[in-house]
Design a protein that fits this description.
With about 80 residues, this protein is mainly α. The protein has three helices and two strands, in the order ββααα.
Length: about 80
């Protein structure tokens, strides 16, 4: 947040950071890759890694919150 405190999911407290990376499923892998999901940089870096590997699948549970914005930037 604006004070530097880690953002946690409201529905699932295991979801952390701006990319809402789930600690239960991804903490160990992120550590093995040298990414700290508790920092902004590491959270975004792991989010990108995860997206490139699996697409939006890891975030499907929350898609009702973001899917409507998916194609806004089309020209």
């Amino acid at each position: 947040d604006k004070n530097g405190k880690i953002i946690r999911g409201e529905a699932n407290a295991y979801d952390v950071g701006v990319m809402q990376i789930n600690e239960m499923y991804h903490l160990e892998k992120s550590k093995k890759l040298g990414m700290d999901i508790y920092t902004l940089e590491g959270n975004m870096e792991y989010g990108r890694y995860l997206y490139e590997k699996e697409g939006a699948r890891p975030w499907l549970a929350s898609s009702k919150c973001w899917a409507k914005y998916q194609n806004i930037a089309k020209s």
